[in-house]
Amino acid sequence: MSIERVTSTLFNMTERDDLGKLITELAVVNGRVTLSSGGEADFYVDLRRITLHHAAAPLVGRVMLDLVADWEFDVVGGLTLGADPVATAMLHAAAVRGRAVDACVVRKAEKVHGLQRRIEGPDVAGRRVLVVEDTSTTGKSAMAAVEALRQAGAEVVGVAVIVDRGAGDVVRSAGLNYRSAFSLADLDLAV
Q1: How far is 119 from 112, CA to CA, in rounded Å?
Q2: Is this prediction's pTM over 0.85?
Q3: Segments of the chain assigned E as strands
Q4: Are 163 and 132 in contact (CB under 8 A)?
Q5: What is the pLDDT of residues 57-94, one digit of tens each?
Q6: pLDDT tens-digit readout, 3-42
Q7: Which residues are involved in binding 5-phospho-alpha-D-ribose 1-diphosphate (predicted)?
Q8: What letter would DSSP give residue 147?
Q9: Judging by DSSP bridges, how do beta strands 102-106 and 155-164 pair with one another?
Q10: Annotated binding-site residue numbers
């Protein structure tokens, strides 16, 4: 392994470590909560406190790009609202690296006014799209985005999330690649 590769790997691990620390410090809320899946948990990982934070959002973009560096995609996006800041952070991080990556927003339902689009942003038909989420427990939001993107003519290359709460098996069973930057164990959170 070359010195350049070792340095790059160490630098990226430091950014991942920094992001993990910010998640633990800013986003983990202790107390009984009901998750969007309907399940209950003794803590909540409020990743909007990260994806919309001045120091954490740039790290999100870089860490997520590094996570899927070996996947080929032209567009990144997912179901609004959790995916929107993740996709935007990745778009900006890619631009800094000289890579052209567009972002899209997948609405929960088609608009009934204006252009009546379900997918906002550049057209995704015929393009390779990476579906992203801030966190996923059941995979339902990610799979809803996958279905909408496929209906719009996109080729979905996989799903990537910042924190996995257990959706990996569901996404993989649908024949898709799945990666997360962090598991609950990585963040020292009991399941």
Answers
A1: 13
A2: yes
A3: 28-34, 40-45, 75-79, 102-106, 119-120, 128-136, 155-164, 178-183
A4: no
A5: 999 999 999 999 999 999 999 999 999 999 999 999 99
A6: 333 333 444 568 999 999 999 999 999 999 887 778 888 8
A7: 107-108, 111, 113, 133-141
A8: H
A9: unpaired
A10: 107-108, 111, 113, 133-141, 165
Under 8 Å between Cβ of 117 and 106: no
Determine whether 180 is exposed, middle or buried from the number of CB atoms within 10 Å of its CB (0-12, 13-18, 19+). Answer: buried
Burial of 87 (0-12, 13-18, 19+ CB in 10 A): buried
Q: Which residues are annotated as a binding site for orotate?
A: 137, 165
| pLDDT tens-digit map of 104-120 | 999 987 766 666 689 99
Query: Alpha-carbon distance 96 to 6, whole Å?
Result: 21
Q: What is the DSSP letter of 54?
A: T
Q: Which residues are annotated as a binding site for 5-phospho-alpha-D-ribose 1-diphosphate?
A: 107-108, 111, 113, 133-141
Omega of the bond leading into 47 within 30 degrees of 0 (cis): no
CB atoms within 10 A of CB 118: 15
